[in-house]
Amino acid sequence: MVGANTLELAEWLLRRDGNPAVSELPALLSNGETQTIYLRNPLSTYLVYFTAFASADGAVSFRRDVYRRDKPIVAALRGAEA
Question: Are residues 39 and 17 in contact, defined by beta-carbon separation less than 8 angstroms?
Fold first, then answer.
């Protein structure tokens, strides 16, 4: 199942790229198979990984560090080795 925001992102990327596959997205997604569509003009992408974040009301939420990235970062901030 593709989330609504995922579909919006795919449509935006294809429109921005002038790719005619944008009109084929519903059909491409309905068959359930993985599809690869290359952009003519690649877009720089930055991935971020947060294990703690604040909501709009200021409440802080923590998540498990499934990729084990926090320990070396915390150690570096403390001036030690992980």
Answer: yes
